[in-house]
C-alpha cells in the first residue's frame, strides 16, 4: 500500500480502537504508526493491542511502527474533606505534606521534591493551569501561596511547576516497569515523558539497551531551554503542545513548535507534532476549520508526523479522524507553496560524505526524470539523511533488519521495504529496481537513484550512488554479474 503523501500519521489506540477490524481500518485509512499510551490500560491490554498490530502488519505485508508512550511522574494534590473547594483570587492557600484532608485554606501536596525546588515568587498551576498560585513563603514541607487565578479545586488534581527544574527523574517506578515490559514485548519507539535535561534521556537509554529508539517529549519549559542537548542524545522528538500550553503562555507555543521542528530536520531526526490536532472529532464527524489549519501548519513546517490522541483512542470517529488527517496532508503537499516552504527551510550545511551523497541524490532526482530514490540502510541513518532532504520524488528505504524498517515508518516520505542480505552493489540495484516496480513507483522505461554503502552491512558507510534503469532484465536477475 503506497501512501500518497510524505508526512506520517500516528494513531493512539484505546477503547474506541481495541480490536483487529478497527486497527486494520485505521491502517488502511492512513495510520503509519500506532501509539500505546501507558497511562491507560494494564499490561495484558497493551500486550493484546501489540499482538493485533503485528497481525495487521503480517496481513498487510508492510512494516508498521509501534510507539509506547510512558506516563512519567504525575504530580497531584491530595484529597479534600468536601471533595472540592472554591478558591478566590487574592486569598491565601497553603500546600503541605500533612495527610489531613484539605479545606478552603490548605491541601496536601505529597511531593517533598517540589518544596525542595520552590522559591519565593514561583508559580504553581493546578488542574491544567485553570488555577494559578504564587509562592509567598516556602520551606522543606510547605508553601504558602496567594491565589492569582481562582476556581474549583478538587481531589487529586494535577500540579505543574513551570518555572523551576524539579529534582525528579523522568522515570517513575511505574515507568521503569512499563519500559521493561514494552521493550521485551518488542515496541519500536519509546516516548519519554517529563524530560527536563539530557541526563533524563541517557538514563532511559541505559535501561532500553538498544531494544527501542527513544523519543523525547518536549512538554516542559526546562526541556525547551535544554532542547539542543536533549536532541543530541535522542532518536526523535515529540512536540507535546498540551503540557507546553499549560506551563508556558499559549502564544509562545507556535514559535517553539516551529523552532523544534526545524532543529529536528537539521539533525535528521524524526519529529512528531502532537496534542489536540483534531480534538473536536472526538465527538463530531467533522473537524473545525481551525483544527484543519493547525494540522496543515505543522505539515507546511516539514514535520515528520502528526498525531491523533483521544480522537482515535476514545472518540466516536477514529477512522474518520485518520482519513481527515490523510486528506489534509495530501492537499497540503500538492500545494506549490508547500514545496517553496520546504525547500527554503532546508539545512544547507554538508559535513560528511554521506551528506554529500544524499544531497546529490536529491539534486539528480529533481533535475532529471527520476521516479524514486532508493536507499539501502542497516541502522537507518542513510534513510534519515535522505528524508532530511525532503526530495520531490518518493523515497524507498530498503533494509534487511526488521527493527530498522519499523522504526523508519515514522520518518517523512519513507516507504520501507524488507530485503534480503546484499553482498554486492549490483544486487542492491537489482533489489531496488524490483521494489520500485512492484511498489508502483516506476515502470520499465523509468530510472531510479540508488544509494548504499560499500562494504555492505556496516552502518555509516554511505559512499556510492547510481542512476539505474528499471529494465525487465534487472527485475528478474537473481545473481550478480
Low-confidence stretches: none
Q: How many helix segments? A: 18
- The helix/strand class is alpha/beta
Radius of gyration: 24 Å
Return the CATH architecture of the largest domain: Alpha-Beta Barrel
Largest sheet: 8 strands, parallel, barrel
Q: Given the C-alpha coordinates, what overall shape results?
A: elongated
Total number of domains: 3
In CATH, the homologous superfamily of the largest domain goes by the name: Phosphoenolpyruvate-binding domains
Q: Strand order, biggest sheet?
A: 1-2-3-12-13-14-15-16
The strand count comes to: 21
Percent of residues in beta strands: 15-25%
Q: Helix coverage percent of residues? A: 25-40%
The N- and C-terminal alpha carbons lie at a distance of 32 Å
Note the topology.
Elements: E1 8-13, H1 20-29, E2 33-37, H2 43-60, E3 65-69, E4 84-87, E5 92-96, E6 106-108, H3 112-117, E7 123-126, E8 131-139, E9 142-149, E10 151-154, E11 159-160, H4 173-185, E12 189-192, H5 198-208, E13 213-218, H6 221-225, H7 227-233, E14 236-240, H8 241-247, H9 253-267, E15 271-274, H10 289-300, E16 305-308, H11 310-313, H12 318-333, H13 336-344, H14 353-367, E17 370-376, H15 381-388, E18 395-399, H16 402-408, E19 414-418, H17 425-438, E20 447-453, E21 462-469, H18 472-475
Describe this structure in words.
With 481 residues, the protein is α/β, with parallel strands linked by helices. It has 3 domains: 8-72 and 171-337, Phosphoenolpyruvate-binding domains (TIM Barrel); 84-160, M1 Pyruvate Kinase, Domain 3, CATH 2.40.33.10; 353-475, Pyruvate Kinase, Chain: A, domain 1, CATH 3.40.1380. 38% of the residues lie in helices and 23% in strands. The protein contains 18 helices and 21 strands. The strands form 4 sheets. The chain has an 8-stranded parallel β-barrel with strand order 1-2-3-12-13-14-15-16, surrounded by 10 helices. Strand 15, helix 10 and strand 16 form a beta-alpha-beta unit. Helix 5 runs parallel beside helix 7 (227-233) and helix 10 (289-300) crosses helix 12. It is elongated and about 80 Å long. The two termini are 32 Å apart.
